[in-house]
Structures are given as structure tokens and as C-alpha cells.
Specification:
elongated; 169 residues
């Protein structure tokens, strides 16, 4: 009988519970066009079809592989237009791989800089400076071409799930 349960319409709370989503997330997906407006009861309750459920599962899986909601929307639009989204997906994956490769290189460069600082600090080559001569002299030696990523402690990591940009003072 479990198979027949998935074929009936579900209210937003039921659907959210089945998929481990917040009902607000489902409403948001509707508002940005990732999910079509559902049918409604006479009382105005949203009713979701098995197709809506499958679409939400697809959205979650696409997010899990690193796609943005905008990219997922493009894939869905291509599919709705009868086009195979594989070419677009391939372009997205190629770009994401290139981004990861660039991040890995930046991290490798950053690690090398930290190892140099560590060696200088452990050699006891403390020199005069405003605060720490090793850092101050080392900073002057850095090439403008090397971008050092700022890594944050997990304790200080931002836990907010809002999409607003972080404001700096």
C-alpha cells in the first residue's frame, strides 16, 4: 500500500516531512519558479502531486552536487522545453572543476606561504617590527599574483542560512 500513498496529493507539511524540507523552502521554490504553483483545496491548502515530489527530489540532488538554484532552474527549463540538459550540465561541471582547480592551487600556494612563515618563526629569526617582524617582512615579499585565501576557524564560521551578503564594518 505504500506505493499508493506516493501517488496521492500531499499537503505541504506532509511533503516537507517526507523529503526533510522546511515548508518555507517549498514555498520559496514556488516563488522563484523552480516548482510550479500547486493545485489547491477549496480551503486554499496546497496539494502537491507525485511529479512535484520528484521535482523536489531532483532539486535536492542537484544542490548536493553543487549546483546553484539558478543553474537548477536552467536545467529544469531545458527539460521542460524538451531539450536534453546534458550539454548545459557538462558546461557547468567543467566550470566548477576549473573553479575547484583554482581553489586548490590557491590553497597550495597559501600552504607554502604558511610553511615559510613557520620555518622563519621556528628558526628564531625574530626581527624588529611594529608587532612581529617576521610577518611584516614576509608580507612585503608576497607577490601581488599570489592570492592568499582567508581561512576561518570552524568556531567562527557563519552559521546563518540567509542569502544576504555579510556586511563588514
Amino acid at each position: 500500500m505504500a506505493g499508493t500513498e506516493t501517488k496521492r496529493s500531499l499537503r505541504i507539511g506532509e511533503l516537507a516531512a517526507q523529503l526533510g524540507l522546511n515548508p518555507k523552502t517549498i514555498r520559496y521554490y514556488e516563488s522563484i519558479g523552480l516548482l510550479p504553483a500547486p493545485a489547491r483545496t477549496e480551503a486554499g491548502y496546497r496539494l502537491y502531486s507525485p511529479d512535484d515530489r520528484e521535482r523536489l527530489i531532483f532539486i535536492r540532488k542537484a544542490q548536493a552536487v553543487g549546483l546553484t538554484l539558478a543553474e537548477i532552474g536552467q536545467l529544469l527549463q531545458l527539460g521542460q522545453a524538451g531539450e536534453a540538459p546534458c550539454g548545459y550540465l557538462n558546461e557547468l561541471v567543467e566550470q566548477k572543476l576549473a573553479d575547484i582547480d583554482a581553489q586548490l592551487q590557491a590553497l597550495h600556494d597559501f600552504r607554502r606561504e604558511l610553511l615559510t612563515l613557520q620555518a622563519e618563526a621556528s628558526d628564531g629569526r625574530c626581527s624588529d617590527g611594529y608587532v612581529c617582524g617576521i610577518i611584516e617582512q614576509h608580507a612585503h615579499q608576497l607577490s601581488d599574483a599570489v592570492s592568499v585565501p582567508i581561512l576561518r576557524s570552524p568556531r567562527r564560521a557563519r552559521t546563518s542560512t540567509t542569502s544576504e551578503p555579510r556586511r563588514t564594518p
